[in-house]
Amino acid sequence: MRKPIIAANWKMNLTSSETESYLKTFLLEIGDEIDTEIVIIPPFTALFKASEHLSASASTKLGAQNMSQHRSGAFTGEISAAMLRELFVRYVVLGHSERRQLFGETDEIINQKLHAAHDATLKPIFCVGETLAERDAGQVEAVLSRQLHAGLAGMGEKEIHEIVVAYEPVWAIGTGRNATPAQAQEAHAFIRKQLAEIAGQNVADRVRIQYGGSVKTSNAAELLAQPDIDGALVGGASLDPRDFAEIVKSARAAKAG
Ligand code: PGA
């Protein structure tokens, strides 16, 4: 059984003080959630405040949106894995399409980051997904396969077992246009097949694959009801603590059948 994992990717939103009031509301709404793993992923500047509020929560963990592939040194503006670990960060988003498209991150850089995260015992949320042009050209499987093989190069079964994969079709991110449950399930099943090729069926059966791209309260349950969708990476709809709590609850209901 794969434990569902629902994550809130705030992107460049919410200050440290806004984080405090968000988490007070969210933790009250969510209560003693134990069947679902929840990850709050604020901007770097709010990690410290968030870690103070989440330290007593059994279900809600802290994640970061990015990190450097380097351990330390002359990299102005960058944040290392060790810096995140010290703030009780457990997860780190790597290879998000905004990092790939707007900040020039290549498969090779993302692979280096995955290795650096593993070395620091951070669990990666490794994002893959095709653009609209790639989907229209019939290249979905080729793109996913390339991103998975290149991103996971040099990683063993144990390392891959720790990873959460997020399937985020680029055309669905922030556009209000989500993949249909059938489209998402098809891509997730393909990703699991690739993982089996790379790391064996046993690992593939245990790796959790999140869907991301315009997940909201009205569509979370039907997406999460698909057999290979083990969670969601939620952007825009996670900025409201009550909406995000509702998404977590509908995930629990969907997975309980
Ligand atoms: P969205 O973002 O929910 O706003 O589409 C998802 C993401 O980019 O992780």
Helices and strands, with pairings:
Blueprint: E1 5-9, H1 16-30, E2 37-41, H2 47-54, E3 60-64, H3 81-86, E4 91-94, H4 97-102, H5 107-119, E5 123-128, H6 132-136, H7 140-151, H8 157-161, E6 164-167, H9 181-199, H10 201-206, E7 208-212, H11 220-224, E8 231-234, H12 241-256
Parallel strand pairs: 1-2, 1-8, 2-3, 3-4, 4-5, 5-6, 6-7, 7-8
Helix pairs in contact: 1-2, 1-12, 5-7, 7-9
Bound molecules: 2-phosphoglycolic acid (PGA).
Describe this structure in words.
With 257 residues, this protein is of the alpha/beta class. The chain has a single domain, classed as Aldolase class I (TIM Barrel). The chain contains 12 helices and 8 strands. The mean pLDDT is 96. The chain binds 2-phosphoglycolic acid. The site of 2-phosphoglycolic acid has 13 residues, from strand 8.
Query: How many separate helices?
Result: 12
Helical content stands at: 40-55%
Quickly name the level 1 CATH class.
Answer: Alpha Beta
Structural classification: alpha/beta
The CATH fourth-level homologous superfamily: Aldolase class I
Bound ligand species: 2-phosphoglycolic acid
Features:
45% helix, binds 2-phosphoglycolic acid, globular, 257 residues, eight-stranded parallel barrel, TIM Barrel, 12 helices, alpha/beta
Quickly describe the structure.
With 257 residues, the protein is an alpha/beta fold. The chain has helices at residues 16-30, 47-54, 81-86, 97-102, 107-119, 132-136, 140-151, 157-161, 181-199, 201-206, 220-224, 241-256; strands spanning 5-9, 37-41, 60-64, 91-94, 123-128, 164-167, 208-212, 231-234. The protein has one domain: Alpha-Beta Barrel (TIM Barrel), CATH 3.20.20.70.
